[in-house]
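Need the bound structure for S-adenosylmethionine, inputs here:
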Amino acid sequence: MRASVAGEMVRTEARSGAAAQLKADVAELDLVEAQCTIAATLKSEGALTEAVLHLQAALRAWPGDRRVRAAVIDCLGDLQLTHAANALRSDLVGILESADLDLQPLAYPLACLARACPAFAALEALATDGSAERSLADWVEAGLGELASDRLFLATLETVVLRDRALEQLLTALRRALLRKWSCCCRAIIDEQLLSLLCALARQCFLDEYAWFVSEEEAGLLPSLAERAQSADIGEGDRAVNLALFACYAPLIGLGDLGAWPRHEGIAGLVKQQVRDVEVERRLALAIPSAGNIRDPVSKLVRDQYENNPYPRWLGCGGALEAERVADMLQRLVPEAVPAHRLPNGPIEILCAGCGTGQQVIEKALAIPDAHVLGVDLSLGSLGYAKRRALDLGAVAAEFLHADILNLGRLERRFDLIESIGVLHHLAEPKEGLRSLSALLKPGGLMRIGLYSRKARAGIASAQALLRNQGYRATPESMRACRRHLLDLPPDSTLGSMTRIVDFYSLSEFRDLLFHANEHRFSLLEVAAMIAELGLTFIGFELPAEVVREYRQLFGGAADLRCLECWDRFEEAHPDTFLGLYRFWLQAPG
Ligand SMILES: C[S@@+](CC[C@H](N)C(=O)[O-])C[C@H]1O[C@@H](n2cnc3c(N)ncnc32)[C@H](O)[C@@H]1O
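Answer from helper R.:
Posting the output first, comments after.
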């Protein structure tokens, strides 16, 4: 009896211990959110330094909390950062190690910070005034060591695609100077510090898929660079430099099996990025199931494009910070949407049609409770990348299928949500793609679609035509030459303005932007007709609040946000509104 009373007491204590822990967890939870909200409010009031200091204190208090790191990215994302104290710099180096966040929004402030370094002006002058003739010694004298010893700059090169004209021009010229130096010495041409910069530069070149311009002189030197990089007869230091320099021009995996790699931290990072991860992706791709052969001639062309240039090569995982149901996601993205039918509670089946490299699949698999997410794509290379990232990030609810959207008729599953962003406009008949997808919706199921706008892309369409007329083609060499041509033009000319678009800065995105194998563009009236023909209901656009306000100013406070004819008129007056895409939600009959 006594024993049982004691046992009961222990159990009670255990329970109250758990309750106390729960209370503490809840308090912590609220506190983290409160701190992030305070920082966002400080930023909106213009108290930027205070907002950043606040978040730095939160980073110290909750070092592993994803929400605090996300709040720092949010806070700095659009800032022209020209100074950062040492503590902030080292916090940013830590944040750049986060695999669970989309780090790309930091590219802009970090590029601004790099450009603000004292040596930048002298280095830029070297890069733009016939730098091909400049020796490496000139670069060192101009302050290259300052960049090479900046841990934050190296981490930036390793983790985000720089989308910055001036930095691209500088780093392309530096790469050329290093290769020239190598060509006359063929030996360990650089010290340890420069080797770390070279390795980081090679990581950046892989991230942007070798988009930077390669001169004829450089192209002529690459075969002997590859040969020497493969040679076993040189010392470890020489080999490391050769390999890192080679990796600035092409992925290391192209060198074949080299046995042991030089022991160097930078080289180890390169080998993981350019050999091990690629091998894993290739192996995983082979195990992805297929549904039917790809027979449609346009699908074949499009598949070839994305096999060569999987899109996008994303690095971190964005998406919702907290678990959210599909209804919450709709509410977050289209606050005024009123679906005609509610989604059922319980397990949710999601299809991402044309999932590319899987970012959207993985974000949903991680954020939506009880979701099972199927990603379908034409490109096995993209799916291999997606599968590797899903495994890295523990997205167990993500599954992948190699198939053409047009061949999904035999799929027995039906879906609560089908998402297809930036895909249907690449089909020969986009309406047939939408028809095929809508047949897979459960009654009352939702669709999230992204399509190109003809009005918004008018400038891009003219640039595409001009570049084709000038003889540029979708080969890597031609696209690199084309990018160089565009970088040399005034940024406000029709063609030069392409360098202001984020897609300009990596090869797969550049190809998508200007050299796509097949691209349709739509007016909203055409979208309306297609939706009506398929018996779907338009629920709303994903748009910033200020656009919705302007719409209401034009059409009155009670104007229906689902009126596509009205939006067509709105777009006439504001043609850049849907520059990204028309992103909208549809619903099947209940
Ligand atoms: C521009 S990417 C968009 C990828 C992804 N939805 C995103 O937003 O990041 C277009 C993707 O659609 C895929 N795609 C195009 N046509 C397709 C089709 N008929 N069936 C399946 N996938 C297709 C391509 O292979 C490519 O990966």
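Comments: The longest helix spans residues 2-44. The radius of gyration is 26 Å.
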